[in-house]
Specification:
alpha+beta, 28% strand, globular
């Protein structure tokens, strides 16, 4: 009798092992099927009507990471030591979005608006298409969307998952671009984590300038929460190479957005905080600047707060990571961070007035 019992046990173990292997293989195939794999370079559709027809010699820009209209002054975030995974309600998202739209309307004289973390169909913001609501207020702009986070389902945190995400960069211009392109940045988290993570990119607009050479304006949002910079370093290397190439072409280059690295010379101690410095903080590496480029940022006002807790002045860590890079032959006039008390986002908007240098001053 022992032989048949042993045979049945072995058969059961075989079928259990085979079933587990099939489930594992099925899971792998499913992850391979649902992973978003953007092209290295792709055109992004342009919408709207740009009103300005002249070829500009100067530009006024505003960059703002709007924190998907979910990271207002009362919010924290689980990745930064807080608890919140999503906005608490659709009403809160719309309230923040109304504040963001009002600020943008107040600065609709800007030639370009470079926005980051704009949700279009995400569970964390209740499916609200923030891009459409923003551009509805801003006639006279051409605009384009470059996704950098697209996942059918993000399963973490396990007890309260992020869910579906469609989010990215929105770039608006009063000068009609003749191209708008998404450029994939290098680096990724290991598989399978990368299936559910961001695919960072540059969003590049190109339009003619007053001297017959093109303006190239880049909207960017670089990585964070990689701690040792394993993603930011290859991203910055790619950015440096690309900016150098554009300058060698003769383009007038401005790159603006959320660099997620502290700019050279920022004196964080002047802002004051009692919370510890977060482990994601990272400086721009010394000597990184491409030849002929210069930084343009407001070092007197913080552009970012840590979201380990709701906003408390003097308690939350703050720093400056939002601003611009100007290529050879482009000079900065005013650069100013708009201190909004982090009411609508964990970032502040930054304004820049830039103009072409006189020919005898070009580098």
């Amino acid at each position: 009798m022992r032989a048949p019992i042993r045979t049945r046990t072995l058969r059961a173990l075989f079928w259990i092992s085979l079933s587990l292997l099939a489930l594992l293989l099925g899971g792998v195939l499913l992850l391979l099927a649902i992973e978003w794999r953007p092209a290295q370079v792709e055109n992004t559709p342009l919408f709207g009507q740009a009103r300005k027809r002249e070829r500009p010699s100067s530009l006024r820009l505003l960059t703002w990471n709007i924190g998907y209209a979910g990271l207002d002054a009362d919010a924290d975030f689980f990745m930064d030591g807080g608890r919140m995974v999503r906005a608490p309600s659709p009403e809160r998202v719309r309230q923040n979005l109304a504040g963001i739209r009002e600020v943008l309307r107040q600065h609709e004289d800007a030639d370009l608006l470079l926005l980051q973390e704009v949700d279009r169909d995400s569970s964390r913001t209740f499916g609200i298409d923030e891009a459409q609501e923003i551009v509805a207020d801003l006639p006279g702009y051409a605009w384009s969307f470059a996704p950098n986070y697209r996942s059918r389902w993000v399963p973490w945190p396990l007890l309260d998952p992020i869910g579906r995400v469609e989010s990215g960069l929105v770039s608006l211009s009063r000068h009609r671009p003749h191209t708008a392109r998404r450029l994939q940045l290098p680096g990724a988290f290991p598989w399978p984590v990368r299936v559910f993570h961001l695919k960072r990119c540059l969003h590049e607009l190109r339009f003619p300038g007053s001297d017959g050479r093109d303006w190239v304006v880049i909207n960017l949002h670089l990585s964070t929460f990689d701690r040792d910079g394993r993603l930011r370093r290859p991203e910055m290397a790619f950015l440096r190479e690309h900016l150098t190439h554009l300058a060698q072409e003769g383009a007038h280059v401005i790159a603006g957005g959320d660099f997620n690295q502290v700019f050279p010379g920022v004196e964080e101690a002047s802002f004051g905080h009692s919370d510890p410095v977060p482990d994601w903080r990272m400086d721009v590496e010394p000597g990184w600047l491409p030849p002929g480029f210069r930084w343009a940022f407001d070092g007197a006002r913080p552009s970012l707060r840590a979201v380990n807790r709701p906003w408390q002045p003097g308690v939350n860590f703050t720093t400056v990571i939002d601003g611009f890079l100007l290529g050879p032959g482009v000079e900065a006039g005013e650069v100013r961070t708009l201190d909004l008390g982090f009411r609508h986002s964990d970032h502040h908007p930054v304004l820049l007035e830039a103009h072409l240098a006189s020919p005898d001053r070009e580098e």
